[in-house]
Amino acid sequence: MRLLITTLAALALAAPLAFAAEISRTEYKAQVEPICKANAQANERILKGVRKMVKQNKLKPAGAKFLKAGAALKKTYNQLKAVPQPTADEAKLAKWLKYVKKEADLFVKAGRALKAGNRSKAQRFVNQLNSNANKANATVLAFNFRYCRFNPAKFT
To answer: With CB atoms counted within 10 Å of each terminal CB, which end of the chain scores lower, N or C?
Structure first.
């Protein structure tokens, strides 16, 4: 009997905690937007002038910038992944996070191609990057993100 009472007491205490852990879309957005804003500002700084560099055939320095942007987005991805998600949106956000990770990988691939002097291969990765960003943005349209909307075409 004592075990039953102890178990019921533990369950009664745990139930409110389980509900307290639930997060809304608004709360999720409030937590991730500053992370994305920091990444957007980093990309502004990192990728400044990269398009001009490519046009001037300065592929290695442009590639280095892409690699740096990829590393910054990978860091952002890890931070986003750690944020608790609304239960109802877990599948949607998991899909979005896959796109974010793929975007970081595509930045790196484009950077490596540029460093190797392969402009056409880099362009293919940039095209994939833009397409991937559009898919990512469409996946989380309901969140009305400002900074977590990815727009690599702005830089590439």
So the answer is: N
